[in-house]
Amino acid sequence: MEFKEFVEKQASVLRDGSSTIEFTRSVFEAIVANSDLDILDGYKASSFKVFYNGNTAISGISRKINAHLEPMEFAEYISQHDDGAVEDLCSVFRADIPDIELNNAGNKLAELFTAIITEAAGAKRKTTVQQKIFNKYLKKAESFYSTKKTLLYAGKPHPFYVSYRKGLSEVTLKDATVARLDSKYVIIRGLGGLGQTMFLTPLFLSSRNATEVPLLLFLKNYGENTGSIFNFILNSIREFDAGINESDIAEALDGKKLVLLMDGLDEIKSDYVESFEKELDVFIKTWSETPVIITSRPINQFISYNKFLLCDIQPLEKDQSVELIEKLEFWDTEARKNFIAALKNRLYESHRQFASNPLLLTIMLMTYSTFGEIPAMMHVFYSKAYETMSRLHDATKGSYRRKLHTKLSPEDFAKYFAEFCARTYRDQIIEFDKTLFISYMRKVMERAPKEHAIIPLKNFLRDLTDNLCIMYKEGEKILLHPSFLPGVFHGGILCIRVRH
After folding, report:
1. Least confident of 17-21, 178-182, 306-310
2. How far is CA 162 from CA 77, 204, 235, 245, 372, in A?
3. Among 120, 214, 407, 453, which has the highest number of CB atoms less than 10 A from its own CB?
4. Which candidate, 317, 367, 315, 375, places its Cα nearest to that of 338?
5. What's the mean pLDDT in 400-423?
6. Which of 14-18, 159-163, 354-358 is predicted least confidently?
């Protein structure tokens, strides 16, 4: 596709009265890294007009910006438009991108625009043998991980784009890529809610078109029968491409073409931690040139990981907290406006432990919308947060309040779910199938009053997934909500799940 057709199709949906000059420049600005936008300042307004009309090729400007492309920035630019506009874009581009849909439109259009610029610049990348072999995995994994459910977007997966600052020897790192990390072996650690997984996912997405092949691996799946790290890689990839075989992986590792992105060291059951550490040591000795990036909560001193550089995800500064809230699509615009004003005025300083944590900051906004204030005491805050979650699904429905399928009060429900959490935490269970969930809930309800003991146990699951949005279903799996993994409700109080 030529740039002229690409920009005209976008303009048919997004131009909204702006001039061709303004719109065309905004399209280029959307894909250039924010720190490099001054590259475009050397172009006259008339240049963008002739680019739009196709009277001048974009080869010159493409050569200048090709090394400064940030596809994720462009994907975020697309996602900032309302769903109706994005759906219209899908219709306009469907002939060119058959699999484009609402939840992947940003990624797909960013990929197309990047290809247009790269080809115009005469610098089309050669596809490596390894990229061809892992192409099915990369495409399916990218589609799967490019959207996430969050506390605010619980009804459907939402396009996932995020920029984080990370403390690394006092250096600010934005829009991270593997190439920008200071070591081949890195542990990225942070307290619950700071965003370890939210950091690793864009690291995977931003490395999608690199020479090396990124593999996103979830350590919660490492268990008794996993065996070597090699087998763990093989099994993880086969979830997306069953055709990958051992020789494919061995050849890629020997050719130094894989990057391992391992999420959730703290989520490995304690019985298997020692085995993992031994297998990781063997893997590093065998394939010493393969980068390994691991995320974790600060569960220990990481003494056995002596080859790894420890990097801490820093809490949000005041301006970052405000910026995050400004970008959220929140149903109560007036509450968000007042909450931002409160953050700027005094709230950040008085509630720094909440406001500097992305997860807790989001819960603060929801709680503020419900009660018009944020309690200072930690236990009161979490109690109010639970009450907010108990009515979250109906936040835009006026006075209507949906009843729980269990017909329990939020207080009674919290009491039973607290015991469920205590039991599963003791047994180090963080994901379930329906049978396992029911078996734990049955133990909880054995001592319940008669009128509660007769409640169908499946109704607890329906409430947790449909009404409270604390858990969600992924195929046959039942998991704590991605945005809520740092905690579970205990008697109305959110207890941080930290491995000691």
Report:
1. 178-182
2. 12, 12, 28, 33, 28
3. 214
4. 367
5. 78
6. 159-163
Contacts of 303-310 with C-beta under 8 Å, sequence gap 24+, read: 304/277, 305/185, 305/187, 305/277, 307/185, 308/183, 308/185, 308/186, 308/187, 309/181, 309/182, 309/183, 309/185, 309/186, 309/187, 310/187, 310/189
Residues with Cβ within 8 Å of residue 132, at least 6 apart in sequence:
none
Residue the block writes with tokens 């080859």 = 307
Contact (Cβ atoms closer than 8 angstroms) between residue 160 and residue 202: yes
* Residue 67 token pair: 């090394």
Helix 358-371 vs helix 318-327: angle between axes, to the nearest 10 degrees?
60
161-185: string of b/e by CB count within 10 Å (b at 16+)? Answer: bbbbbbebeeeebebbebeebeebb
Query: If we measure between CA atoms, which residue out of 158, 153, 157, 162 comes closest to residue 197?
Result: 162
Q: Which residues contact 92 (CB under 8 A, 6 or more apart)?
A: 9, 10, 12, 13
Largest CA distance in the chain: 79
- The answer for 150, left when phi > 0, alpha when psi is -120 to 50, beta otherwise, is beta
Q: Which residue's entry shows tokens 């309040």?
A: 401
Which secondary structure element, helix H or strand E, spans residue 147, and what is its range? strand 147-148
Is residue 186 within 8 A of residue 309, CB to CB? The reply is yes
